[in-house]
Amino acid sequence: MTDSMFALIAEELARIAAEKGETLPALGPDTRFLGGDLPIDSLDLATLLVVLEQRTGQDPFRAGFVQFNTVGELAALYRPALSPSGLPAGSA
């Protein structure tokens, strides 16, 4: 998992939680999206995926859904979206 992708996911999760009036708990690679401590639901998760696609230009689900449950698993799916500088494409 890359630190920059993890940071991007954390940033967007914090924004989603704040819009709901919630506080985002500390995140780690093993933090589960649904059924855990995150104040998000399946619609929020779908919103996160759309925003990640917009910000990275990458859709790891284009060929079909790939199972993921944790922040670390999702960040790993976007590994090809990183530029050589280590930043998500378009964020330099």
Overview of the structural elements:
The chain has helices at residues 3-19, 42-56, 71-77. It has 92 residues and is mainly alpha-helical. Helix 1 packs across helix 2 (42-56). The two termini are 19 Å apart. 16% of the residues are buried. The model is unreliable at 81-92 (pLDDT under 50).
Q: In summary, what is this structure?
A:
This protein is mainly alpha-helical and 92 residues long. Helices cover 42% and strands 0% of the residues.
User: If you average the pLDDT, what whole number results?
Assistant: 85
* Number of helical segments with 4 or more residues: 3
Q: Give, in order, the helices and strands.
A: HHH
Q: Percent range for helical residues?
A: 40-55%
Pick out the low-confidence regions: 81-92
What's the total count of β strands?
0
Structural class estimated from helices and strands: mainly alpha
Distance between the termini: 19 Å
What radius of gyration results from the CA coordinates?
A: 12 Å
Assembly form of the protein = single chain
What is the overall shape?
globular
Biggest sheet features: none
- What share of the residues does DSSP label as strand, in percent? under 5%
